[in-house]
Automatic annotation (TrEMBL):
The gene is iclR. InterPro entries: GAF-like_dom_sf, HTH_MetabolicPath_Reg, Tscrpt_reg_IclR_C, Tscrpt_reg_IclR_N, WH-like_DNA-bd_sf, WH_DNA-bd_sf. Keywords: DNA-binding, Transcription, Transcription regulation. This is Transcriptional repressor IclR. Residues 7-67 form the HTH iclR-type domain. GO terms for molecular function: DNA binding; DNA-binding transcription factor activity. It comes from Corynebacterium provencense. It comes from the Bacteria. The keyword Protein biosynthesis does not apply.
Amino acid sequence: MAAEGVTKSVERALQLLGIVCSEDSMTLTEAARDADLPASTALRLLRSLCAQGFLRREEDGSYRAGPRLIQLGARALSKNNLINSAGPYMRALAAECGESVYLSVKVSQEEALYIHIEEGTHSVRHVSWVGNTIPLDNSAAGKVFRGDEGEAAVVEDRVEKDVTAIATGVRVGGQLVAALSIVAPSYRMDADIIDALSFDLREMASDVECALGGELK
């Protein structure tokens, strides 16, 4: 029973950690409600997570991701072969076209996760959604992961109002492993620009696939 109790506490703590980190910040009341836990239990777990650096308590009493969690995430991403291979090509395309370029992976049957961005150079641009999930339904990356991209998937004003996304897949050994997307304000995206960016995106995906060399670590 003691072992079961420890396991349950760990599960609750991890659940609470995920809930808090799904938002910019969260109060005790909000975290306890979303985790379906008594406030006293949630407070005890939040204090433990803060003590280990996985969460941080702000002056206003809210909680957000802590330095230890951010450090671990940064270390994990720095060793990600997909990001290391795609990053330079994404950076070059963002500099060339001025729009933000994203890398995403499928994390469930319903969602994909943005894991890297190279921000565009326009003063008005799409800013980082890294760490955010997007629905496979109604998103350009989602069309890629559902096998409905054609030459490139294009979605306008679906996930976000007045935003257009163009996406294509990255394949390793014939298997789809990621999606590359250009995300931009819709007012800059006419048919000719979308066609040109779709071509550039497909070219970049080919370069990334060559850089990966058929291997993904």
